[in-house]
Each structure stands twice: as structure tokens, then as C-alpha cells.
Amino acid sequence: MIKFVVLALAISAVHCQYGGYQKEQAPEYKEQDYYAPAHYNFDYSVKDEHTGDIKSQREQREGDKTEGEYSLVEPDGTLRVVKYYVDGKSGFVAEVHREPGKYQPAPEPAYKKQEPSYYKPQPSYQK
């Protein structure tokens, strides 16, 4: 009788540990439309005054129509703004626009080319 009680307790402990029998549910199948028109919006910008890296971009797309613009500060300090669009079969159309004197020119690099440090013997003449 004691062996039966101990065996029943062991079985119930294992049963409780693993949560009993649970029927696994089949994963849900979701139909994906791989040929649906693309839709997205994004933008980003960088403004680093120390290095002179200032730029931004924005773009949005709905199906075959894409439009956006980006701007950047060139090394001479001018601001270049490019507005573009793609509409179906028209191809990529861009309008470039420059605004001179908008920003300070980029700083010169701090790197200096070093002269070689090898020994240069002085010419000596004998009579």
C-alpha cells in the first residue's frame, strides 16, 4: 500500500512539473501579398558642427510614385538641396538648387605630413 501511495505521489509530482498534457495548437497561416505596392516614409538628419557634417533626407513612396529631397553642406559652405521624384514611367527627375554662403566652410584637416626621420649625411670633401 505504501509503495502505491509513493508511486502515485511521484506521478502527480511529474505531472504538475510539466503542466500536464496540452494539445499543441497549429501555427496560424497568414497569406502575404508579395505583389502589393510599396508604401513607406522615412527621414533622417545629421548636424555635426565640429566636423561640418550637416545633411538631411526625407522620402515617401506610395506604389510607383516616390518623392523626396535631401540637402547637404558642401566643403565650401554652400548648401545643396536636391528635390526629386519618380512617377511611374517618367524615371528619376531631380531639381538641384544651391544656396551659397549659407554656412562656414569645413575646417581644414589637422593632419600634417611629416618629413622622413632618417639620417641624412652631410657631404664631406677631402683635398
Element layout with pairings:
Layout lengths: L1 H16 L21 E10 L4 E10 L2 E9 L5 E9 L4 E8 L28
Antiparallel strand pairs: 1-2, 2-3, 3-4, 4-5
Structure notes:
The chain has a five-stranded antiparallel β-sheet, with no helix packed on it. The chain is flat and about 120 Å long. It has one helix at 2-17, and strands spanning 39-48, 53-62, 65-73, 79-87, 92-99. By secondary structure, it is mainly beta.
**What fraction strand?**
35-45%
Number of E-state strands: 5
Strand order of the largest sheet: 1-2-3-4-5
Silhouette: flat
- What is the CA–CA distance across the termini? 125 Å
- Helical amount among residues, as a percent range? 10-25%
Q: Could you describe the largest sheet, including whether it forms a barrel?
A: 5 strands, antiparallel
Q: List SSEs in N-to-C order.
A: HEEEEE
Indicate the mean pLDDT: 81
SS-derived structural category: mainly beta
The radius of gyration computed from the alpha-carbon positions, rounded to a whole number of angstroms, is 36 Å
Low-confidence stretches: none
How many H/I helical runs? 1
